[in-house]
Model the fold of this input.
Amino acid sequence: MASEPSTKIPLKTLSSGHNMPIVAVGTSGLSFDPDNAKGVIIEAIKIGYRHFDTACSYGSEGALGEAIAEALQLGLIESRADVFITSKLWCTDNHPEHVLSAIKTSLSNLKMDYLDLYLIHWPISTIPGPVTFPLKREEVMPLDLKGVWKAMEQCQNLGLTRSIGVSNFTTKKLEELIQFAKIPPAVNQVEMNLAWQQQKLKEYCTKKGITITAHSPLGGQNRFYPNLVLTSDVLKEIADAKGKSIAQISLRWILEQGVGIVVKSFNKERLKQNLEIFNWELTEAERAKIRSIQQRKGVTTEIMLASEGSLTSVDFADIDIVET
Ligand SMILES: NC(=O)c1ccc[n+]([C@@H]2O[C@H](COP(=O)([O-])OP(=O)(O)OC[C@H]3O[C@@H](n4cnc5c(N)ncnc54)[C@H](OP(=O)(O)O)[C@@H]3O)[C@@H](O)[C@H]2O)c1
Done:
C-alpha cells in the first residue's frame, strides 16, 4: 500500500466530470536534463504532487513516463490512475489529419495508454514536420480549428485521453471554438500571474464552465523578458510582512482565483515551498496592493516566432489580443 504524502492537493472537477489536482509540476525547462528531471519527478511524488504537465515540444514526456513507472515500482503510487498527466499538441501537428498520430506519439513517449488531459498547445498551425521552436514565420499557416477540434474529440471518444482542452486561447478564440464543439474544452491553460492577472478571461471561462490553469505562475522562465513577479517590490513587501516567499504569495493569489496552477521547479526545497499555500490566505488589503501591480503580457506570439522572416498567410491579431 502506497504511503500517504504529507500534503494532499485539492481536486477540481472539470466539465468532463474528471477530477484534476489543482497544482501541477511543469516540466518545460530551458536546460532540460532527462536524468535530473526523472529524479525531480519522483521527489515531487513523494512530496504529494500528482499532476504533471508535459508537452511533445518540451522533450520531457519520456522522462516523465519513466519517473511514473519507477514511482509505481517503488510503491509511491499504487496505479497509473493515481496521477494526472497533461500533454499538448504542437503547432506542427495542429492539422486535423495529424492529431491522432500526435497523441499516439505522446502516449508512446510516456509509455501510457491514456492521457488525463490533451491540449491544443497554441492556436497556431505550422507546416507539418518535426517539432521546431521557435517557429519559422514563413511556415505559419491558417489553423483549421474546427477540423482539429473534431480530431481532439475523437481522441477523447477513443479513450486516448480523459479530457480535452486548449492553451493560450483568448476569449475570441474560445468563442469561435464553442460554436462548433460537440465536447466543450475542459481547460484553457494560459499565462496567468501577478503581472498578467487575466481577469476578463477568468470571468469568461467561469461563465462557460472552462477551467483555467495558470502557466508561468511565477512569471515564467524568462529568456525573453524581465520577470516582473519574482522581482516585484510590492510582492516583496507583502511576502516579508507575512513571513512567506514571493513565490508563495504569487501562488496563493492564483489559488484564490479558483483556477489551477502549473508551476515548474526542479529543486526539492522549492517544490515543497510551492505546496505550502493551502492553510492561510491573503488579506483584502494585500489583494488590493496586488491589483495595483503593473500588467504586462510575457508569453506572446513574438517569443514563439523566429526573429527573422515574415508571416505570409496569417496575422496574429486575434491571438495576441490584450485582455486585462
Ligand atoms: N501552455 C503553454 O504555452 C505554456 C507556456 C509556458 C509554460 N507552460 C507550463 O507551465 C509550467 C510553468 O511555467 P514556467 O516553467 O515557464 O515558469 P514558472 O513556473 O512561472 O517559473 C519557473 C521558474 O521559477 C523558479 N522557481 C520555482 N519555484 C520557485 C520558488 N519557490 N522560488 C523562487 N523561484 C522558483 C524555477 O526555478 P527552479 O526550477 O530552479 O526552482 C524556474 O526558473 C512550465 O514548466 C510548463 O509545464 C506552458
